[in-house]
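[09:14] KT: can someone run the structure on this one? pasting the chain below
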Amino acid sequence: MTPRERLKATLNGNKVDRPAVSFYEIGGFNINLDDPDKYNVYNSPSWKPLLELANNHTDIIRLASPVRAESHSSWSGNSKADSGNQIVEQSVWEEGDNRFTRLTYNISNKKLTSLTRRNKDIDTVWTIEHLLKNIDDVRTFLELPDEIFEEQIDVKPLFEQETELGDKGIIMVDTEDPLCAMATLFSMDDFTVFAFTEEDLCQQLLEKHARYIHKRTEQVAREFPGRLWRIYGPEFASEPFLPPHLFNEYVVRYDKPMVEMIQQYNGFVRLHSHGNIRGILDHIAGMKVDAIDPIEPPPQGDVELEYVRQKYGQQMVLFGNLEISDIENMPSDKFRQVVRRSIKAGTMGEGRGFVLMPSSSPCTREVAELTLRNYQIIIEELF
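[09:31] RB: done, structure tokens below
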């Protein structure tokens, strides 16, 4: 089977010649090795063998966005914010090996500000100052007109990436949910207190984000039908941050309509939630999603893959079960045993399907020899 055939068969619950394997962001991100930008960590020679391994031996699931040129690129606003309107201003500057981005929202003679930092040797963005810092900031943010969140949605690049990818894999439409859009406006400490103590205001913020996210979801599902989607953000309402009953209020209420929109046009939904999921698995299954990731084993998570396979594997394709921390740090002989256990648990008995996949990927400029070797072991155990 080609990777494309294998992945489509897996999503449909059909038999495959072997379990599919994805390196998640490696192969999932559309990366230009030759881009000389100093912030492109992937142009380091140490990345080339790992990227070639993913390209030649994995079932690629390419993350793609209808509102960003690259799914993994930093996003700090929307089309109107980026075009220089008078409500949202953006300034970008560099200091040494760091790039800073400040957003300023001008609302009713008040200013809300945020600040992020990106280092040239690490492919991630740190938020130094979050936009919403107290209840007054929340009420001010709610005064923003909905028009400020309007987006330029274009599915043409999704078709183009799919054609370019060919039989090597499939496209996965990548989207945040309303909870993710809301929670990332706060520090994690402030968000959890806010979500516990201000349910009404929290729902108002969720509704505000749901309006444009739901609109985007329906349009893309209709214009790019029958594809796999990843919805990320539910983990903000998982334990130990919030109790399961709030997961129903903050996730199910807003994500279930997204699931239904996508499935109405024959698409597949993969719900992404790191960490502890045992207490929310029934809620996730109740949304009738097609798949879940990354199903992290203890101690990073709180549930074993075997349990999820037995209880939910008939309904959902199970993605993941390998920890990036193990790939980067575990001796290779021990890691091989981890891979074997994951494959056994993910394919035991009857189930819709299993895709072996790490929980994340390296984000530093240099890829260590141990890391590369452990990725090679993943492939060796499936071929």
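[09:33] KT: thanks! The chain has one domain: 3-75+131-380.
[09:34] RB: yep, looked fine to me
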